[in-house]
Structure formats: structure tokens, C-alpha cells
Design goal:
The structure holds two protein chains of two kinds. Chain A has two domains: 14-258, Thiamin diphosphate (ThDP)-binding fold, Pyr/PP domains (Rossmann fold); 265-398, Rossmann fold. Chain A is 39% helix and 20% strand. Chain A has helices spanning 21-31, 46-57, 71-83, 94-109, 134-138, 152-166, 196-202, 226-258, 283-296, 314-321, 342-351, 374-385, and strands at residues 2-3, 14-20, 36-39, 64-67, 88-92, 115-120, 145-148, 175-180, 188-194, 260-261, 265-268, 275-279, 301-306, 308-310, 326-331, 359-364, 397-398. Chain A has a seven-stranded mixed β-sheet, with helices on both faces. In chain A, strands 11-13-12-15-16-17 form a six-stranded mixed β-sheet, sandwiched between helices. In chain A, β7 (145-148), α6 and β8 (175-180) form a beta-alpha-beta unit. Chain A is globular and about 70 Å long. The two termini of chain A are 39 Å apart. In chain B, α1 packs across α7. Chain B is an alpha/beta fold. In chain B, the strands form three sheets. In chain B, strands 4-3-5-6-10-9-12-11 form an eight-stranded mixed β-sheet, with helices on both faces. Chain B has a two-stranded antiparallel sheet with strand order 1-2. A two-stranded antiparallel ribbon of chain B has the order 7-8. In chain B, 33% of the residues lie in helices and 18% in strands. In chain B, a hairpin with a 2-residue loop joins β1 and β2 (11-12). Classes of the chains: A alpha/beta, B alpha/beta. Chain A binds chain B through residues 40-43, 46-47, 49-50, 53-54, 57-58, 65, 67, 69-71, 95, 99, 124, 127, and chain B through 63, 79, 81-83, 112-113, 115, 138, 140-142, 144-145, 147, 156-160, 164.
């Protein structure tokens, strides 16, 4: 995120408040005038849903809240309500996501603009409630637009962006907004809350293109015979890729309204740096502190942060990384028996065949909430600089794992 | 009472349930005033009295506060994913019919996310003892509304009181075909221990609902006092009635509670039904499954 307005106080129409990031997310959902919320409790997503149920019960949000009996039902309710044309929201984590994953794929195939906040948490087993990206990577290919937030303000802002993009008639795709469990969901941050007038300017009322309505019957979820299935999937893939310019346009519009601009690939002190870190999610903030310190000591490092995971921003990634010698990808998930972390494997694929392509180092860090601290970035940079790091095309390091 | 529970009136005594617990896992995670530990105590005593071979007894839990029980009991145990205790247990039972398999989980796990499995295990009369500790809330995730939350009870997702109609779990189990159905509270430790013992020795799907306080989330949010206050409520408002039709059981918010053993009947288990069906069709060519040592 880049902010053009660096003044001390909030601009007119903005209120700066300290609040738990989960409550900021709920506030954004409330301001989006969502019609239906269906969710099942799972740590660390619960505070978002609890706050929404309070807002609904207080009459502060004109919506239905359905306390369903499982995540499979949560996403199924979302498909139903979205199919009628209602603006729909759900929220889950980890096991909840993989339980609902059957319907996650249906949602995107039916082009229903559901918005889901995913409080990232590791998948069992062993049983764990702490943050990593193994949950979202399990549905990497589900056809949803997938964005990552780095702090509370981004969670708040990206929620509006999600509805703006999802419901655009040229897009009509569900969106999954990722935030790291506990590291973001359970912390209190200063959040710039926009007046409703700003939101109303940004996010129009949802006017569904297709909806289940008795006056004009349609069939949704019909059988796709082999003669049609391939074309249906090709259309879906093309539509997801075609969403890309609209995603950028919606960020620009948000920036023009609020002064907070977003890009699919964010860079921090990256220009001309020979060694670049590449992160996704909340560890980007820690990485930026690490880069500050290392640059002060004269080290040639910078930071690139991936915000848009699907559709994958190939050109921006190439542009951000092309001039570097080394790219250190920090993955928060593993592909067992495969190329290490899912992010690094996509980065390697993106850079493959480029002249003077940088060497990609893959470090799997922060599994199940293990702290990734400033000095961890320094140690990793040292390993790379001293030639100790493994740099084969399919090599990866599970960082700081005890033998 | 002595400060050291192992020394009573100057005499060292061993707590009779300690051999049934994984003592290296203690202290447990349950809050002060929680009733789950009391149910575990009753269960351990039932194990001492049931006469089963504990090397042939397995316990399966789902996710949640009660889901931790499987980890504290020194039996072969399985801590499954949320809601899946019953199908895991079904796999254990049909894979090794010699096992006595116990499902021990909470109301959220067994009747919400795993509710589908509950009705089908009862329908099939799968040979399992299913103990449901009902504290009316999802304790582990912070006190949300479950399918057993009484109408009017405040929960984090029902800030002005629940408006959804809850399950009457004994009636549900009865209607689906369970062969043994009882409800007790953590006040009724003697009756609960006896029910667990009967359940352990019952062939077929046996179901015991145990009402248990959650002082941290349910009681606090509803201003019901601490764990002791809830046990006093159980004592004062519980009425034992073994002959009542399960559809007429009382369990309103802080109202009368009907407790008792409501169903105790015989019905073909799933394995028996399979063996009988195939034997009747194929005759001697069919070798009945799992009857070498008899189904326990």
C-alpha cells in the first residue's frame, strides 16, 4: 500500500480508530451492506463472525446471519443466497476451508460473487490453530480471485475492493481475502475508517446479471457433458484472467477516494537491489523492518510483496524481480514431495527462460505461526550472500527446523 | 479435605481413577468449574467396573473441549477432525469387531458439524457407546450458539438470546434407533457412572447425554454463576423419570430437566444385520464377518 496523504490527522470523511483487526473486517462487511452472512465458528476467524452477529442483532446491519452447522453448509448457504442476487459474505479458516472446499469450487464455476475472508491457519495434522498458508494453498486452483493483506488497514480496504471487483459484471467471480490468523485477526491496530458516504461512492448497489427469480426462471449448476465441459472451463479461465485490469482499476479508484493505493505486486526499497525478499501476508511488515536495518548497514537488499495471488500477476512479478541477482521467496506452506513452497514454484516458473533470470532461493518459514523475526531475514540473507544457501532449481530449505 | 489429594487423614491413598489417565498429560486444559472432568471421573470408574478388557477398548473424540478427553484417557485413543468421531469409530469397529469403541465428544461436534453421522450411526445400530457432553455451547472457539443451545440463552452469535429451536438429543437418538438412551447431569455422578457401565456393556448404538456447566462462556454470558451454581441448578431442577416418552423430555433454559434411562432395548447391530442378510442369501458359503471372537 502506498499513501499519498502523509498528514498527521485523518482527512475529512475519515476517522482513525484503534480496533481489533477482526472488528475492522466486520466493520467493512457492515459498510458494504451485505445481505446474508453464513458462518460456522473456527479459530481464529471467530471474532469477525461474532462481531457481525452482534451488528445484525443490534439492527446496525440489515442482514440475515445464519449460524450454520458446518462450513460445508456455510458455503452452500452462500451459494444459495448469492444465486438469488443477495450480497453474501462468509469467513473461515483452515479445516473449515477444506471442509467447504467442494462448494468453493462450485461457487467460482457458477460465477457467484461471494466474498470470503480467510483467516489463514495451518491444516491439521498435527492439530494446530496457528497461522500459515497451507489452508489457502489447498484451494489454490479453485478459480477464486485471491488477495493477501499485510495489516489491518489493508484488510479493511480490501474488503470493499473485494465486493467492487466480485460484482463487476465484467468479472463476476468470488473473492477470497487472506489475512494471517492471530498475527492479524487478534491484534489491535489503528484503522482509518471511511465515512459511509465514501463507501457509497465506491461500491454501488449489487445488480445481479443472473439470479434465481420466479419471474424469469434459470437453471444453475446444471450437468456439463464432455462436449461442453472443456469450453465451460476455458471460459472460466479466460474470465478470471480478464478480471485482471478491472482489479487494478478498482484499486486505483479506491486510491483516488481514500489516498491509499494498492498494486498486485508491492515493492519496498526494491529498486536496483541485487537481493530481493518476496513475501505474502503479514510477514511483509517484518521483512520491511529487516530491509530498513540491512540497507542502513549498506546491504544491497530490497523487498517485493505479492498481494494478488490469483489471477497471477506474471508481468508485474517479472518487472519487479528481473534486475536482481537473487530472489529469496518466503513460503508459508509446503508441497510435500514437490517443489517446496507453492509461491517459489510459481515464481520460478514465471522467471523461467528470461535472460539473466535471478536465482530463486526457496525458504519455507513460519509454519503454524512460528515467529519469523527480523534477524531471521538477516540470517537468510547471510546464507545467500555467503553461498551457503541451496540454489538448485528444485531445492528448498525448511528454515530453522530442528533435526 | 487435605491440601494434597493423595493424602487423606494422614494416609496416602491412590486415586482409583489415576491408572486410567495419561498422567504425563496433566494438568488438563479445562477451566475451573467445567464439568467435563467430572464426566471423565465417572467414565474411569465405569471402566473399573465394566469388566471389559481395556486393551480391547478404544476411545474416539472430535474437536472441542470434550474432544480432549481421548487424549487424557490411557486407552487406545483417536482425536479426529471436527465432527468425524463417529465415522472414525465406525471404521475402528468394522475393521476390528473385537474392539469396544467409545465415542466421547461434545454437543457442537456430535450434533452440528457431525450431526449427519450421529443419526446414521443410530439408524444402523453401529455397535458404539456415544457419550455427548452437552454444555450448550462451542466452548473451545469462544461460546457460539450450537444446535443444543436453549431458546433464550445468550451466545456470542446470539447476543440477545438464541431464537433457534434446539435438538432434544435423547429423542433424536431414540427416533433414529439407538438401543440405549439416557440423560444425566454432572450432579448425578452415581447414575452417570452406572449408565456408562451399562453403555459399555450394551451391544449396539448406546447414547448418553451428560449436561455439564461451561462457567467461562455459557454461564458467565448468561449470568448463571459459577460451576457450583450450575450443579446446584441441576440438583434442584432435575427430575428422574425413566418411563417418559423421549419426545416429552424437558430441557428449557434454566427450567426443569428430565433425566433418566429412557430406552434400553435389543436390535440387530449393523454387523449382525450384514451377516444375517448374507447368510440368508448365500448360506454356508458366506463366512460371517467378525464373529470369531464374538461382537462385544
Amino acid at each position: 500500500m502506498t499513501t499519498s496523504n502523509k498528514s498527521d490527522g485523518p482527512a475529512p470523511g475519515h476517522t482513525r480508530m484503534g480496533m481489533e483487526v477482526s472488528h475492522a473486517a466486520a466493520r467493512a462487511v457492515q459498510q458494504c451492506n451485505v445481505d446474508v452472512v453464513a458462518a460456522y465458528p473456527i479459530t481464529p476467524q471467530t471474532h469477525i463472525v461474532e462481531r457481525l452477529s452482534e451488528l445484525v442483532a443490534n439492527g446496525e446491519m440489515n442482514a440475515e446471519f445464519v449460524p450454520v452447522e458446518s462450513e460445508h453448509s456455510a458455503m452452500s448457504v452462500c451459494v444459495g443466497s448469492s444465486a438469488t442476487g443477495a450480497r453474501t459474505f462468509t469467513c473461515t479458516s483452515s479445516q473449515g476451508l477444506i471442509l467447504m472446499s467442494e462448494v468453493v469450487y462450485i461457487t467460482s464455476a457458477m460465477r457467484l460473487p461471494v466474498v470470503m475472508i480467510l483467516a489463514n491457519r495451518s491444516l491439521s495434522g498435527p492439530l494446530s490453530i496457528w497461522a500459515d498458508h497451507s489452508d489457502v494453498m489447498s484451494v489454490r486452483d479453485c478459480g477464486w480471485i485471491q488477495t493477501f493483506a499485510e495489516n489491518g488497514q489493508e484488510v479493511y480496504d480490501l474488503t470493499f475492493h473485494a465486493y467492487k471487483v466480485a460484482e463487476n459484471r465484467d468479472i463476476l467471480h468470488p473473492i477470497m481475502l487472506n489475512l494471517d490468523g492471530f498475527h492479524l485477526t487478534h491484534v489491535v491496530e489503528p484503522i482509518d475508517i471511511c465515512d459511509q458516504s465514501i463507501i457509497d461512492k465506491y461500491l454501488p448497489e449489487y445488480e445481479p446479471l443472473f439470479q434465481l427469480h420466479p419471474d424469469k426462471p434459470v437453471t444453475m449448476g446444471a450437468y456439463g457433458v464432455p462436449e461442453l465441459f472443456t469450453e465451460a472451463k476455458k471460459n472460466q479461465d479466460e474470465a478470471l484472467k480478464a478480471a485482471y485490469p478491472h482489479i487494478l482499476e478498482a484499486w486505483k479508484e479506491w486510491g483516488d477516494l481514500t489516498g491509499r493505493y494498492y498494486k498486485p505486486v508491492e515493492t519496498y526499497k526494491a529498486e536496483g537491489a541485487k537481493t530481493l525478499f518476496l513475501t505474502m501476508g503479514s510477514i511483509g511488515e517484518t521483512a520491511s523492518v529487516a530491509v530498513d536495518g540491512m540497507q542502513e548497514r549498506g546491504e544491497d537488499v530490497g523487498l517485493v510483496k505479492l498481494r494478488l495471488w490469483r489471477p497471477f500477476p506474471f508481468d508485474e512479478v517479472r518487472k519487479a524481480l528481473a534486475g536482481a541477482d537473487n530472489v529469496i521467496v518466503l513460503d508459508r506452506a509446503l508441497s510435500f514431495g514437490g517443489p517446496g513452497g507453492p509461491v517459489s514454484s510459481e515464481i520460478r516458473a514465471t522467471l523461467y527462460g528470461l535472460d539473466h533470470a535471478p536465482t530463486v532461493y526457496d525458504y519455507v518459514v513460519g509454519l503454524a505461526g512460528r515467529d519469523v523475526k527480523v534477524d531471521d531475514f538477516e540470517k537468510i540473507a547471510n546464507d545467500v550472500r555467503s553461498g551457503k544457501a541451496r540454489k538448485g532449481q528444485d531445492e528448498y530449505v525448511i528454515y530453522a527446523a530442528r533435526e | 479435605m487435605s491440601a494434597n489429594p493423595d493424602v487423606v487423614m494422614g494416609v496416602e491413598v491412590e486415586n482409583p481413577v489415576m491408572p486410567y489417565l495419561r498422567q504425563d498429560r496433566l494438568p488438563h486444559i479445562w477451566c475451573p468449574g467445567c464439568g467435563i472432568g467430572t464426566t471423565v471421573n465417572c467414565f474411569a470408574r465405569a471402566l473399573t467396573e465394566c469388566g471389559l478388557d481395556l486393551d480391547q477398548t478404544a476411545i474416539v473424540s472430535g474437536i472441542g473441549c470434550t474432544g480432549r478427553v481421548a487424549g487424557y484417557l490411557d486407552l487406545d485413543s483417536f482425536h479426529t477432525t471436527h465432527g468425524r468421531a463417529i465415522p472414525f469409530a465406525t471404521g475402528l469397529k468394522v475393521g476390528n469387531p473385537d474392539l469396544k469403541v467409545v465415542v466421547y465428544s461434545g454437543d457442537g461436534d456430535l450434533t452440528a458439524i457431525g450431526g449427519n453421522h450421529f443419526v446414521h450411526a443410530a439408524r444402523r445400530n453401529m455397535d458404539l457407546l456415544c457419550i455427548c457432553v452437552n454444555n450448550f455451547t462451542y466452548g473451545m472457539t469462544g461460546g457460539q450458539c450450537t444446535p443444543t443451545s436453549p431458546v433464550g440463552a445468550k451466545q456470542t452469535t446470539m447476543p440477545y438470546g438464541n431464537f433457534e429451536h434446539p435438538f432434544n438429543l435423547p429423542h433424536l437418538a431414540d427416533a433414529c434407533g439407538a438401543v440405549y438412551v439416557a440423560r444425566w447431569t454432572v450432579y448425578h455422578v452415581k447414575q452417570l457412572t452406572r449408565a456408562m457401565k451399562e453403555g459399555l456393556n450394551k451391544k449396539g448404538f448406546a447414547f448418553i447425554e451428560v449436561l455439564s456447566p461451561c462457567p467461562t462462556l455459557y454461564s458467565r454470558r448468561n449470568r448463571l454463576g459459577d460451576g457450583v451454581d450450575q450443579v446446584k441448578y441441576y440438583k434442584e431442577r432435575s427430575k428422574i423419570n425413566n418411563d417418559v416418552d423421549t419426545k416429552d423430555l424437558s430441557l428449557e433454559f434454566q427450567g426443569d430437566i428430565t433425566v433418566g434411562k429412557f430406552v434400553d432395548r435389543e436390535r440387530e447391530t449393523w454387523l449382525d444385520a450384514m451377516n444375517n442378510r448374507f447368510t440368508s442369501v448365500i448360506g454356508d458359503k458366506y463366512e460371517p464377518y467378525g464373529v470369531t471372537n464374538g461382537e462385544k
